[in-house]
Amino acid sequence: MKKLSALILSMVMLAAIACPASADIIKMDIPYQNTDPDLYLVELDLTNQVGAVYMRDESGSYGNVVRQFLITSGDEENSTPTGTFKLTEMRERFGYFLNFNIYAQYWTQVVRGIYLHSVLFSRRNDTSMTRGSYNELGTAASHGCVRMLVEDARFIFYNCPPGTTIKITKKALNPELTKSLKPKASASKYKFAPDELPAISPVTAYVLNNSVPMRTGFSLGDHEIDSTVATVNAGDEIEILQAGKTWVKARFGKKEGYIQTKHVRAINSDNSPQTHMRVAAESANVYVSGSNTAAVIGVLPYGTAVTLLEDSFNYFMHVEVNGLTGYILKTDLVSTPIVDYGDPANLPTMAEDAPTRYTIGPNGELTPFGSVQVIDVAPTPSPTPTPTPLILPPF
């Protein structure tokens, strides 16, 4: 697993103070086929083990049934909660159940550990469906989540975006309705169409703090079911599989688990390729090549914005500041903006044959130093004191 150096860890924590983690920092690239949370209403009837999706009509009511299907809800010991909820942004295309060593497709969170998802699979592939979970449709047999056929879970996953209302109720007994929705095919002959929408890639992120537990569920401390599967530390690189406002599901090495969102940050706040960075040290030398013994061609003050040209060096990044190109230590940069002084403007391009040495001031002004080997450090603007590292209380 990648580790950031001690210095860049402090830079990451400083960035977390300047731009605190929020619900919109990490977003999964789910190709929703509908983005209107009011277009559909999902209803689950636990008495008859029947699910339905209704479409809003012109009057604003939900009288049009677009899908009706059998479900499997929680059994007596692990009952599915009733009530009205909003589907959340925590979703996973093909997820692993940490406590049960089993998989399911098209996870859509209702509340905490309660998800809508497909029937179960023994491996992360379409051909490993468990016949038992297929045959249990129409009965209460799960640990609290709600199972359904793959095509029904898929419809909700892509068409009922975060904010869609779901009502979980107990209606009058209607055994004929349950019987009428029984799948025609046996488990061995059940087939479903392949998913032709773009794959959903995990989001790469870094851990901000030390001794962060990765849990099997949405709880901390002692719990009768949930436990800690791994402990991650500041600088550990993880893959985000589900992203929510307070928790994320992540992969660290071969381990998967839930981590509180406040402890992680995507490499870039918009999950885009890392191309824009800022100086996170009091000052940063710009070298003519990727070595700290190379000639210094500029000194950038705290907060200066730079553009990343290449990140193929062990300790340096090849950057540009409005035409001035050079190499800066990775430990002097951070991808999250710290404070916006405005980008330095009108800087000359570095000459390849006889590079001029510059110091860049806090307002973007550039002063040539000729052949001077030692460059004075441009002062950090006094209104912006260096933040202290983030210290969180123990769990």
The total of beta strands comes to 26
* Coarse morphology: elongated
Strand order of the largest sheet: 3-2-1-10-4
Largest sheet: 5 strands, mixed
**The CATH topology of the largest domain:** L,D-transpeptidase catalytic domain-like
Structural summary, described in words:
- The protein is built from four helices and 26 strands.
- It has three domains: 88 residues, SH3 Domains (SH3 type barrels), CATH 2.30.30; 150 residues, Beta Barrel (L,D-transpeptidase catalytic domain-like), CATH 2.40.440; 93 residues, Roll (SH3 type barrels).
- The two termini are 24 Å apart.
- A hairpin with an 8-residue loop joins strand 19 and strand 20.
- The N terminus and C terminus are likely disordered.
- The strands form seven sheets. Strands 3-2-1-10-4 form a five-stranded mixed sheet, covered by helices on one side. Strands 5, 6, 7, 8 and 9 form a five-stranded mixed sheet that branches.
- With 395 residues, the protein is mainly beta.
- It is elongated.
- 37% of the residues are buried.
At a glance:
With 395 residues, the chain is mostly beta strands.
SSE layout and pairings?
Blueprint: H1 6-18, E1 40-45, E2 50-55, E3 64-70, E4 83-86, E5 91-97, E6 102-111, E7 114-118, E8 120-121, H2 131-135, E9 146-148, H3 150-159, E10 165-169, H4 175-180, E11 203-207, E12 212-215, E13 228-232, E14 237-243, E15 247-252, E16 255-260, E17 264-266, E18 276-279, E19 283-287, E20 296-301, E21 305-310, E22 316-321, E23 324-329, E24 333-334, E25 358-360, E26 366-368
Parallel strand pairs: 1-10, 7-9
Antiparallel strand pairs: 1-2, 2-3, 4-10, 5-6, 6-7, 6-8, 11-14, 11-17, 12-13, 14-15, 15-16, 18-21, 18-24, 19-20, 21-22, 22-23, 25-26
